[in-house]
Amino acid sequence: MATSNLVEVESVTFSYDRRPILKDINLVVPAGKVVAIMGLSGCGKTTLLRLIGGALLPDQGEVRVAGQAVNKLSDDELFRLRRKMGMLFQFGALFTDLSSLDNVAFQMREHTNLPEELIRDLALMKLQAVGLRGAAGFMPSELSGGMARRVALARSIALDPMLMMYDEPFTGLDPISLGVIGQLIRRLNDSLGATSIVVTHDVAEALELVDYVYYMADGKVEFHGTPGEVRSAALPSMRQFVRGEIDGPSPFHYPAPEYRQDLLGQ
Amino acid sequence: MTQRVLELVRALGARIVSNWIWRLGFGFRFFWVMLRESGTSFRRFHLTIREIYFAGVLSLIIILVSGLFVGMVLGLQGYDTLVRYGSSEALGVLVSLSLVRELGPVVAGLLFASRAGSAITAEIGLMKATEQLSAMEMMAVDPIARVVAPRFWGGVISMPLLAALFSAMGVFGGYLVGVRLIGVDEGSFWSQMQAAVDFREDVLNGVIKSVVFGVAVSWIAVYEGYDAPPTAEGVSGATTRTVVTSSLAILALDFVLTALMFRGT
């Protein structure tokens, strides 16, 4: 049986204030897989994630999640679909007035009529899954960056989503936390039977973790393939990106007038 | 020359449309959506009670102390003027009418705008800047229903209560200075007040004013927070705008309401 696609992005174009961000993007995310969208900062990765989540609407094209065209849903239908999605924001976006446990329990309290004891137990189980049951009573201000990201991860899987979206999950983490988050993404995806999209520019971590990679540059998908194909790809801009070379198709210097002329005014 | 004048007029028009008319329209649409989404604030009243605590209970100290001092000053100034006409026993009337009709709602409103209004704006603005509102939306929870509306209703409910407490403390301050300190006759202080202050004309009109100010301040505070650019500078600017706009709105609305309520009757 052929694997069905959970997310399909078809010929999507998007601009902010007439500034084109995404140009004719085509991309599919097969069910059950972990797919990375990689590229330099500002290439439109996060925008693409927001389009999939229905937070933004494309100028042209269609975004389908589980067969539903996200950009054509009513508010109610979109909210129903979002209950099956989880999103981890770049810096966690934990609710600062709620404890870790209450953050994880937030969605359960909002969307279900489960008894309070059961909600507490479920939230503790989610925290246990990210190794932070012991920090259940901590407020977000008492958590380190890595811990906050893990609590946010526990919160985003609270209702066992079918689609998980990660917006730069590795940014600003120490190597241990980074490894922990990476492992959790893979493990949770496989144990929940979910599908994951990881937006990142952390090449080494992502290539270890994911099944498939879309590489974006300048608002377009420049390359896609398995991590092995990415490593051996000959595309100059992606080679520079994967190897972290400072100069190449993506220049070190932002375009400027000639240096001598700028300094000496000649 | 004509070209330059035309350009100037065009630029002015663009500024007015984008800065004022657009924002005003957006503000009213926001107000309408907030009212439509207010069901949660009442169905899950504990959300609103929490906001009444933050906006109302935590403003008590500043409201009570200010009320006391305003009343004491009214007592001193009022006595000084009334004694010239030999009617110092009318001090109770002067103090209570000034407070119930004007100073209670207006000064409590101004204090409420700077204490609670600014806090509401800063909180919602920072929640937006740290993506908490986006996170909520992605969790299929409408931030207007869950975050904005309870804060609005918390403010609307707190404001008349605070104004009433402000007036009560003010009357007590006037009593302390007038009766206890200066020695105005206690019997006439209270009895004249009782005879002169009409429940419908004075007290109820004061309550209506404080409700209107509560709606205005809370609306401005939540709107500015929700509309704040998600940066440190954006949130600080929005907080300032809340205090300035609310204060001006209170004073302007006070004039309109006073003109409607007390037309020389």
Please give a structural write-up.
The complex is a heterodimer of chains A (266) and B (265). Chain A contains 10 helices and 10 strands. In chain A, the strands form 2 sheets. In chain A, strands 6-7-8-3-9-10 form a 6-stranded mixed β-sheet, with helices on both faces. In chain A, strands 2-1-4-5 form a 4-stranded antiparallel β-sheet, with helices on one face. Chain A starts with a strand and ends with a helix. Chain A folds into 2 domains: 1-84 and 162-225, P-loop containing nucleotide triphosphate hydrolases (Rossmann fold), CATH 3.40.50; 95-160, no CATH class. Chain A has 266 residues and is α/β, with parallel strands linked by helices. With 265 residues, chain B is mostly helical. Chain B has one domain. In chain B, 87% of the residues lie in helices and 0% in strands. Chain B is built from 10 helices and no strands. In chain B, helix 5 packs across helix 8. The radius of gyration of chain B is 22 Å and the shape is globular. The mean pLDDT of chain B is 94. The A-B interface holds A 53, 55, 79-80, 82-83, 85, 87, 89-91, 93-96, 106-107, 110-111 and B 127, 130-132, 134-142, 146.
Low-confidence stretches of chain B: none
* Helix proportion of chain A: 25-40%
Mean pLDDT of chain A: 88
The dominant shape of chain B is: globular
- How many separate domains of chain B? 1
Biggest β-sheet: strands ordered side by side in the sheet of chain A:
6-7-8-3-9-10
Major sheet size, sense and barrel closure of chain B: none
What's the β-strand tally of chain B? 0
Number of strands of chain A: 10
Gap from first CA to last CA of chain B: 56 Å
Q: What structural class do helix, strand and pairing data of chain B support?
A: mainly alpha
* CATH 4th-level superfamily of the largest domain in chain A: P-loop containing nucleotide triphosphate hydrolases
- Quaternary state of the chains: heterodimer
Count structural domains of chain A: 2
**Number of helical elements of chain B:** 10
**Alpha-carbon distance between the two ends of chain A:** 70 Å
Largest sheet of chain A: 6 strands, mixed
Q: Runs of chain A with pLDDT <50, length 5+?
A: none
